[in-house]
Amino acid sequence: MAPLIFRPPLCWIAPLAAAWLLLGAGPAALRAQAPPEYQVKAVFLLNFAQFVEWPPEAYAGADAPLVIGVLGADPFGDTLEETVRGERAHGHPLVVQRFRRAQDVRECHILFIAPSENGRLEPALAALPARHVLTVGDGDDFAPRGGTIGFRTAQNKIRLRINLAAAKAADLTISSKLLRAAELVGPPEVAR
Amino acid sequence: MKPARNPFLSPPSAAGRRRTPPARRRGAVLLSLGALLALGGPALSAQTAPVRPPGELKKMSLEELLDIEVTSVSKRPEKLSGAPSAIQVITADDIRRAGAASLPEALRLAANLEVAQIDSRQWAIAARGFNNTTTNKLLVLIDGRTVYTPLYAGVFWDAQDTLLEDLAQIEVISGPGATQWGANAVNGVINITTKSAKDTIGTLLLGGGGTEAQGFGGLRYGAEIRPDLHYRVYAKTARAGDSALPAGADAGDAWHRTQAGFRLDWEPAAGDQFTLQGDLYGGAIAQPALADVKIGGGNLLGRWSRGLPGGSNLKLQLYFDRTHRVVPGSFSEDLDFYDLDFQHHVAVGARHDVVWGFGYRLMDDDVSNGPTLAFLPPQVRREWFNVFVEDRLRFLEDRAQLTAGAKLEHNEYTGFEIQPSVRLDWSVADNRTLWAAVSRAVRTPSRIDRELVSPAAPPYLLSSSPNFASEVLLAYELGLRMQSSPRLTLSLATFFHDYDDLRSLEPVAPPAPFPVVIANGLEGRSYGAEFTADWRATAAWRWQLGYNELRVDSRPKPGSLDRTSTRSQNLDPHRQLLLRSSVGFAGSWEFDATLRAVAPIEFQAVPGYAELDLRLGWRPVPEWEFSLVGQNLLHRRHAEFGPPGSRREIERGVYGKLTWRR
Question: What gap in Å lies between CA B7 and CA B5, rounded to an integer?
């Protein structure tokens, strides 16, 4: 039983090292894959569908889908579709829709407002249907500015901020389990 | 360490070679095969790539999602351990729902580990073979603190504990991790981490008791001092009953243990994080006809990590660890460790990620020798230092990564040791990753190899050797991780391990079997496969399956006269199966079942067995949680490890537990 020890001759080492360094010299090609941050956020959106209750009139019918919308420059790539594929919440299948402008949003249960809209967040919130839209966005100030659930990142971990007044105004019930995992923020003033 | 149970001191008896009844063995095999077939036949696949498949994330609870570290757009890899390897992660939720009452019980949830309970407090835990009472090829870390003993490079599992409710997760890597983790990470790494103090705000009280876990209680209080400064303090105590002799009588090895500790986390600025934590513990374990074994110790650890612009970061960790152990009739030990680790992680160019670092370790070990064995000299001071560098290169439009690195380590026994590895992972499709690795790892000598004699005075029956060299492993691994649907994740890791210079016991005056001297007279090979499947049947019902095949073969090298160690080093079941079902129902109820089936250990004539743990949990309001746990329910008692003469058996146990948190 001879040990299978592989010893590269010394003359290999220099070209190998050169190849190693050269391989890394070119510019990185970008790939249509979301960074893990948005993979995790996509799963949070799926969780919100489970932990938030919409009144029956929020759905067009018993079999109507629960719509997860993305407003603005979509940071998810294909991740969001992959995440919700085959999933149901409260008996409704989940579908993803994308919206260019807040005025286009009609039937939508969860709306992720992309960071591209941060500069015009208040007008966007005001243009949304008054009820049944759970707005979700990035940044420390998303929920204080009138969004319902804000993601913020601290020490590379995602933290949740929930604006209960905004949820109430939209006629949504957020489960205590989700509330426990989040930081509740005011002010209660909702920009719509 | 009980000398009577140590393989060095009691070579297997003739009875140890007796074969187990074939019917029993066939049962375990059929059970395993049946479960595999039920899964759908050619379900061969997949282990962790840095980008987690969405299905893996979807299985996590809200708390777990909030706890995972995400990569920001700068593309910094998540963690060092995220490199492609046969990694399995046990989450805090898994541990709670399985009803594990101790760290070794929690480790039973890792399908890539062999976990055998020896008696009430001793455990034989290994990855990829060479399991023993003194398993020495596994590295175990608790919050970055190495917990193996320098006496035999194994772990005193009776002294390792924490409040299980504080655990964040346990990562179990089977296969070598030496390039990143250092010597002793030969066959695997167990990395146990606790939650940040920020995530344990409030009060937690728990208590319960039953037949084996006779009584336990715990208390934790966590609070915010300032928005960037959090702390927690905890205390716990536990008392466990005797294991059983094969005839059913109590083995007289009941134990009790108490531990307290704290953790402080300060985040003065984004990316800056200070942690200060410490524990103190003490306990006693009964021994028949002798005074109690006494254990005690404590540790204090400080860690600073800092994120730098451009996604690079620095980490500095310092700790002190003291262990005290008195084993009447055998030996006692006072052991101090001082340890420093530094790591710098930096992105170089667009495609390279470089991690480099160094470490220093100082040990003061003071043993009082008993009549049966002695470490000579009894008191030693030893130093270790290491440097390592590893580069991860992304290519094929970031679909593939090649990670190459080496650790250079210096120890006082054998001088410099180099432990290189090359790993490749390749996303062959969006839902599957193929990985391969070649690595070299060494198990450097411990005190047992270089400084042990038995009995304590001449003429010695066993003596160690000043020439004992490191045991060397060359490992070849190939694995596949696959997300075959949003609800089903499969993984398969296969390996071939080639060992040289394994420890042997060479007779000094053959054919007389004794005295023997320790040498590096064996070589060995092992191969096997580790398969896991994780299926979320519905949002509330999850199934997990783990199945392992393992063959270990060692034999004397030319010139070696050792004819016993190949048996004492082959104490690994050929296959084992883990099947778990976790279901939540009616809003506040949870029901978990964990079945494990383990093939026989032939050279110890330990029969194969199957055992079942059940847990029923009820959380009617957020503050209160009630649970009832049954452990090892299928038999009144069963054996998991040990030669027939000194074997202890593990009894069926039931306990209830009450948790209150606010």
Answer: 6
